[in-house]
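Subject: Sanity check before I submit

Could someone independently write out the structure tokens for this chain? I want to compare against mine line by line before I put it in a report. The sequence has 223 residues.
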Amino acid sequence: MVAPTAKLRRAAARPGFTLLETCMALIIIGVGVLAFVEAQRSFMANNEWSSHTARAMYLANEVRELCRRLPRHDPVTGLYFETVDGDSVLRGWGPESGETDPDDIDDIDDLDGATFGDHGEFAGPIDSQGQLIIETTAAGEVVNDDEGNPIGLVGWSQAVTVVKVDPFNYATVREDDFKEDPQGSFPGRAVDRYPLRVTVSVSYRGRYDSEAREVASVSWIAP
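---
Independent answer below. Compare away.
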């Protein structure tokens, strides 16, 4: 029979965790948890940015598809000069009188300076048919304003610029009223006979963002 004092000595001699070892284990576990959380946060941020980039490219290409069916300048009035008080003034660049809605866009130069969505002059981004792209919920339901009207895609915008470029060097930008007079064997080039370079900058501003951030920019030439 083992004496009680011997049992107590054996129990006291058993190995166990000291306070220092416990603290070290907690530190190691904490570092591992923090690394996992940071990796998860980074993954979510990259995934969100990837989704934003895909949507931005979609919105940019919608404007590009819209331009594919439009002439460079107004199909009725065209681009021309008018004499005002003895000065020659360019007419026809930009939206014509009464063209205030996306449905009114009937030529490419109408898009110059237009911003669709995010506090622009139009309610929201547009598609290739010039129609408002409607905001929907995750369940696919249309989001309406207080008056029951559908609202445009929230936070997104398409900013468009159109410039005239030299037909032999697309990197050379010409003024809107630039033209070339006949010279020698060169017959000249009228003000409306130049290619146009269209650039769409797509930006996104989240609910808590102070300003919009450009996500994608696409440029092309309308010959």
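---
OP: Matches mine. For the report I'm noting this point. The chain has a mean pLDDT of 86.
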